[in-house]
Amino acid sequence: MLARVSEQCMRSILEQAISKVFMVAGADLWSGTRGRPRVAFARQVAMYLAHVACGLTLTEVGQIFRRDRTTVAHACSLVEDLRDDACFDRSLELLEGVLRLLSPVLAPSSISLA
Questions:
Q1: 79/84 Cα distance (integer angstroms)
Q2: What's the structural domain count of the chain?
Q3: Is residue 72 part of a domain?
């Protein structure tokens, strides 16, 4: 049986990885408002990585970020389109690796959103 990862644990893992790379305050990632473009983009990348690298559904990612699943889908689409840039793609590959190292056992629907 896979370990269930708490929402708080997942938020902490994402915050550690994303806030340092994008040089944004960790609290800004969870803000209810869009904020500055740099913060909004960092949040979109975090949503993308939570979905792709951690295997969470769009709904689960939306719950973590207190956003609608359609907002998460938009973020994923935007980030996926930017992966055509080789440098950005490599950066995301590295972030995915970091998330896998920081994360406990993760699998789809292994997060506890209680």
A1: 10
A2: 1
A3: yes
Range of the domain at 83: 5-103
Task: Report how far residue 38's alpha carbon sits from residue 101's, in angstroms, rounded to the nearest whole number.
Answer: 25
For residue 27, the domain's CATH number is 1.10.1750.10
Alpha carbons 19 and 74: distance in angstroms, whole number: 21
The CA-based angle 83-87-91, given to 5 degrees, is 80
Q: Is 32 helix (H, G, I), strand (E, B) or coil?
A: coil
Residue 19 CB: number of other CB atoms within 10 A?
18
The answer to whether residue 111 is domain-embedded is: no
Cα separation, 56 vs 43, in Å, equals: 15
Give the Cα separation of 38 and 52 in Å (integer).
21
Rounded to whole angstroms, how far apart are CA atoms 30 and 42? 11
pLDDT tens column, 42-87: 999 999 999 998 889 999 999 999 999 999 999 999 999 999 999 9
